Amino acid sequence: MAEDRTDNRQKRVDSVQDTAAEVRAILQKHQLVEGLVQKQDMPRQELVEGLVHKQNIAELKHKLDTLHPADIAAILEQLPLDERMSVWNMVKAELDGEILLEVSDAVRETLIADMDPEELVAATGQLDTDEIADLAPDLPDEVIADVFRSLSVEEREQLRAALSYPEDTVGALMDFEMVTVREDVTLEVVLRYLRRMEELPENTDQLFVVDRHESLRGVLPISQLVVAAPERLVSDVMTTDFVSFQPDNKADDAAQAVERYDLVSAPVVDVRNRIVGRVTVTDIVDYIREDTENEILGKVGLRDEDLFSSVWKSARNRWLWLAINLCTAFFASRVIGLFEGSIEKLVALAALMPIVAAIAGNSGNQTVALIVRALAFGEINRANAKRLLAKELSVAFLNGLMWGGVAGAFAWLLYGSIGLGLVMVGAMMLNLLVGAAVGMFVPLMLQKMNRDPAIGSSVLLTFSTDSMGFLIFLGLATLFLV
């Protein structure tokens, strides 16, 4: 069964790629046909062009009408800007809101810029309040004001609440679609109540049991509701041992709990234990995906970027960390400049010093990855931090001794100098220790400063291992060889 599910998922991924290729082929065919028609000199030229254009649009619309909003979003992200706008204008208006939720922030910006305020209000009006909150930062103020006026009093309060929480908290992730029941009714009453609904909210694996003051008393799993005798009371069947969150809890902590306890949904309660919403596995998966994408981009100093944005915009997006890298490179070059005399006397130093820096950088990156993962899962605390540092330094020392020995033997055989080989061993051992120390301290320092420990760590690590590697290797060589 697991293999079947994997095959089905792969077919789904492949179908999106194939569909994107089909859409582009249709667009290119339409452009080609319309171009040929325009070049022809024939009677009723405008009529023929209009018929061809309508036929082309009808074919593409028919293709888009068969697709899920998430598939359309994936296709839009793969299209250059002009083709993207052509496809976007052919999408059914009732799908606009869902597609805007699915696309990346950068692509969403281009789509919203192409929409009138009335279109944005209509698209937003199709969404739930928690989904509107996700889009709100990208919408113009006048659109948000119109959306507020179109909501009911309850929905306005829900939207205000969702917008009041930082992006990395449970409150920003929670939705307000949930089913609550009272503990003093029978299961038969609950079943009749559910049958009157058009459909259950997505990811409803349990109902939330509340008292008359909306205080959470327990949860009623759907599995128990289905198999238990209809005449039994909710209070007899409900579970009081459950996981709940508060709106100001960290989203990372909630993600860990969802993974640890295999949760599909969990209630969100305020300080008085009154239920205010719920978090679902879908919300958590979306958060993890977005956080992972930001982390990958952040490691190389990028923000979310449209793949087909303008050259100028893409260039500006990459300036910050390139400027930082340039400064660190200048610093490293000045370290080398301090030992120009030594390098002139022993040219082999110029060939060997990049090895010292590169090995320490790779080793330090391994430490960074380990520490960032441990921070994400809450595995590091004051009690074990010193022991972990001692362990990482010991690993670096052992690796430095082993691979420094290999590099030293290589230098000895290549240049016939045992002294150069010993300097190589010492420099690699010391620089690997530097890489391990920096690889541990930088993520911890960034987390203490309330910054993402994954962003910037690699740049600072490279700067440290390059500069210190050159300084240590050339310093030892100057001291013992020159």
Round the mean pLDDT to the nearest integer and report it: 84
Work out the helicity level.
55-70%
Per the CATH scheme, the topology name of the largest domain is Tetracycline Repressor, domain 2
Percent strand equals 5-15%
Structural class: mainly alpha
What's the helix-strand series?
Answer: HHHHHHHHHHHEHEEHHHEEHHHHHHHH
**Compute the gyration radius: what is it?**
30 Å
What would you say the CATH architecture of the largest domain is?
A: Orthogonal Bundle
Tally of helical segments: 23
How far do the termini sit from each other? 69 Å
Tally of individual domains: 3
List low-pLDDT spans: 1-12
Shape type: globular
Question: Your description of this structure?
Answer:
The radius of gyration is 30 Å and the shape is globular. It has helices spanning 2-39, 45-65, 69-78, 81-88, 96-102, 105-113, 117-124, 129-135, 141-150, 153-163, 170-173, 187-195, 222-227, 234-237, 251-261, 281-299, 311-317, 319-337, 340-345, 348-376, 382-415, 418-448, 457-480, and strands spanning 180-182, 206-210, 216-221, 265-269, 275-280. The chain is mainly alpha-helical and 482 residues long. The protein is built from 23 helices and 5 strands. The protein has 3 domains: 12-173, MgtE N-terminal domain-like (MgtE N-terminal fold); 180-293, CBS-domain, CATH 3.10.580; 318-480, SLC41 divalent cation transporters, integral membrane domain (Tetracycline Repressor, domain 2). The protein is 69% helix and 5% strand. Strands 1-2-3 form a 3-stranded mixed β-sheet. A two-stranded antiparallel ribbon has the order 4-5. A hairpin with a 5-residue loop joins strand 2 (206-210) and strand 3 (216-221).
